[in-house]
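assembly run, all chains below
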Amino acid sequence: MAAATPGPRRAAVIGGNRIPFARQNGAYAAASNQDMLTAALEGLVARHGLAGERLGEVVAGAVLKHSRDFNLTREAVLGSSLSAHTPAYDVQQACATGLEATILVANKIALGQVDCGAAGGVDSASDAPIAVSEGLRRTLLRLNAAKTPAQRLRALAGLRPGHVVPQAPRNVEPRTGLSMGEHMAQTALRWGVTRQSQDELAAASHRNLAAAYDRGFFDDLLTPYLGLARDENLRPDSTVENLATLRTVFGAGEGATMTAGNSTPLTDGASVVLLGSDEWAQEHGLPVLAHLVDAETAAVDYVTGDEGLLMAPAHAVPRLLARTGMTLQDFDLVEIHEAFAATVLATLAAWEDPEFCRDRLGLDAPLGALDRSRLNVNGSSLAAGHPFAATGGRIVASLAKALSEKGPGARGLISVCAAGGQGVVAILEAK
Amino acid sequence: MATETLSGAPSLPLTLARAAVTAGRRRGGQLPDTTLQLPAATVDVDALHRYQRLCGWPVADVLPHTWPHVMGFPLQAELMARGAFPLPLPGLVHVANAITVHRPLLSSERLDLAVRAEALRPHRRGTLVDLVTEVTVDGERVWEGRSTYLRRGPRRDDAPAGEEPPALPEGPAAARWRLPGGLGRDYAAVSGDVNPIHLHPLTARALGFPRAIAHGMWTFARTLALLGPRSAGPSRSRVWFEKPVLLPGTVEAVVRVDGRWSLAGLRRPDGTPLLALVLEER
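ok done. output:
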């Protein structure tokens, strides 16, 4: 007789916690990824009474990561009040890290392999790893491997003055050498995304985030850290008029539309989400906010110019809709990560475009327009900032709470684009 | 007891220098009947973060168990540097420390510090004195520390030996730390305690040590940090500094945790005990 295995069940989003996001070299300049992830996790533990508890697993990651932080998440667990018997591992999928971590934990819960877990991510653009130049690195490796004085001398003779210049991480695609902003500028041009529409989206992001803070929406989603109680990048008084005065930073000439105001700034921060089975939540007296219904990841060929770098979610969402038998209009709330205002607008434009939907997505009819009043209703990355791996956890926790406020059965869609031409999307449904 | 309120934290380098210059004039006698107060002291957040990093704690808003001692130490030094204090400060050895945390403290809080000296008493190896630091916030006592210092003197077999430190847990090392030669200077930079015995082999040798020695409060803090977040909440610790930790050097940490009670220690790789620490969570 085969061993009994439990059937799939839906994983519940029980809560979340993040620290406010700080601008690069701002309030968190002294904090490491491990400090911030520990702070976010410790706040989650405190809020849900998990001190001493053994979770099924904790999964998180960072995009900008020191090699010494190979066990970043496990180290954060050991530095927290969770039981030291809580296992952990790191994942990295660029800006989709936090959402992918959530899906991984949720899948284990769905399969009955674990009953509960935490997922999230952290990034510091301030405490970034600095690498030595490739020439110096190879020289040092040869020096280390040398056994005789002559070999050591030969290795040292390979040193060149230029080798000593250290290399800070750059926000560019390794294969193209283009920055993410430059890639996005090409896509914005292709979809005719206007400066005006980008600035409107950016102003709405600040307005919505400020309103969410003002009505206490983040009170049980956020723990103050190092003097910050709100996101450092938030400008509640941001308007289309003052955004219009900024100069463009990506793209060239007449067609350039992207500014520092409608692009996300480099940011520091961390977020975590608490997931569990319904039974585990009930046993611990914790209400369930929402369930993770399904998720899909897509990747596109941006290297040959076949598709825009950040357009993978445009391909992932229709596949997810087809599998779940839903339409874009079925969602009460939609969260499209604002890597750039133009990313959101190009994605929406693609879904409304009959040719794109027919030729690229293989659909009979376009996905259609999205009711913009359902989009990023509590602000998104343009206002909050975007510490790469921390964005997924921010979105999952705040969407789950917003859906729970709407009432049972409310549905939400999450779309996160990522470097490498990838995109992760997921559906949540309020309990 | 007279209470004297200071307008700011005394400068540690100046106070230590004054204590050194006036050391020869100490003639014993009674402890000064004075409590030094520093109201509404604010945390130097930059120094706190460097302290957290150096001692192995995460950079966070909750003050480490030992941090208020760092804030109170300038008052301790001021009290001991004054002519009314019976023992010369240079050469005083920090032999034990006890701390009670009544509730977690945040870096944003303004702390009322009060320091007094008490319990001048004979010891088999000389004379002991306690410097007591109390921290209150809005009239509520939130933190207490008692630092016990020894003035070495002629051996007195009739005097009490004091409480013996607990034996360190046996078994393999829980951690092994290679302490760099500059550790004393790094700790001086965050704590302000520029006692020459911690700074450089030459200054340490001038004061009778073979090399620079690690600051006791660093070894204490580093060992507590190994125990994780359990010392940040309501808790009580007692530490015994048994032998100096020479720099550079290698030490081994040993730990035994029994529910809310922990025993930790540092030893030389040859097993010689250097520090014993008991932590009780409350």
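The mean pLDDT of chain B is 92.

Helices of chain B lie at 12-21, 45-55, 67-81, 183-191, 201-206, 216-226.

not gonna interpret more than that til we talk
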